[in-house]
Amino acid sequence: MPLDKSELFNMLADALEGRSAKKVKVGLTVHGSEHPPGMLIGAAKEAAKSLDGVEIVLIGAGEEVEGRGIQCVKAGTLEEAHRIMEKMLDGGELDAAVTMHYSFPVGVSTVGRVVTPARGKPVLIATTTGTSSANRVAAMMKNAVYGIIVAKTLGIENPSVGILNVDGSRQVERLLKQLSEQGYEINFAGSMRADGGCIMRGNDLLAGSCDVMVTDTLTGNILVKILSAYTTGGDYEALGWGYGPGIGEDYRRIILILSRASGAPVVEGAIRYAVELVRGNLLKKASEEFEKLRKAGFHELIGELEKTGKPEEKTIVEPPPKKAVTEEIAGIDVLQMEEAVRILWKSGIYAESGMGCTGPVIMVAHEDLKSAVDILKAAGYL
């Protein structure tokens, strides 16, 4: 059927303005917050009203919600909502999703985005949930890369990178500079303090001296909480864009994390953040950056770090047949997660390591949960 004049005019206008005709679909799970579901739904409706070409899918809304650009999918619990969310992402029904209390596999962590109080400048905190590696320095190296990937996706072509002055920062600085010399160009930020350099002080965080602030994940998580809720007393996060998307090599989902304390402004900000990442083609940008990193010897640097301090393995432990892992076992130190997984494999239980919002977890099938807990207790991991 031929297009009428108005349809043709709209298509030409979209092309001239560089707009995509394809709608961006963002899922939002509404279970699990410390605030009422209506708050999240209200934030989604506000985002939908102000964002052109965006549809928000509310996963777990108790009843049909009316509003422009809003769709509802039923889910009785947060766990069910996560299963639906993952299926919709993998099937192309969603481009991105925003959720909370979600466990990423080890190697994936989230890049948060905050407003710095001294200057009002947005800064990416790399990273804020999840864990990139069990080795602290390797994790921070990966965090720096993840922050660069997100910054470039957001349109910052040459993001400035600072390293927060925490344990391991000097080693991270040396290795990132080595990586830069080997061909992966990094634009190191300069501290506002008199001694300069790319090691960032607390003053630099407040003022936004860099585009990407690199730190360990637990420190990053605290920073986002403080900078999101320092005006409210702590129980309601009112500023910023949340804890950000999970980034990792070969990770093919765009899932952004909220805290259970995130208030309506942060929920709306996270939806906007998700739309920016979809339109900036995060997954394509990540693939391009990891290819550059491969050529620059990044994986060899990480491999050497992750070998450090590990005992030689006398035997290779093969995992049992893979199962769907739906249960989490918490309370295991992050540095012992891989050992704990191998202990379960030796006992014939399929397990995976991961990182939930409350810390490291071992994930097993429902029917294996009790046996796995008993084995880990007997081996001294719990």
From TrEMBL:
GO terms under biological process: fatty acid biosynthetic process
Enzyme Commission number, as recorded: 1.21.4.2
Keyword match Oxidoreductase: yes
UniProt entry keywords in alphabetical sequence: Oxidoreductase
Listed SUPFAM superfamilies: Isocitrate/Isopropylmalate dehydrogenase-like
Domain of life: Bacteria
GO MF term list: acyltransferase activity, transferring groups other than amino-acyl groups; glycine reductase activity
Transmembrane annotation, as ranges: none
Record: active site: 357
NCBIfam families per the UniProt record, alphabetical: reduct_C_alpha
The name this protein goes by in its record: Glycine/sarcosine/betaine reductase complex component C subunit alpha
Species: Fervidicola ferrireducens
Lineage, top ranks: Bacteria, Bacillati, Bacillota, Clostridia, Thermosediminibacterales
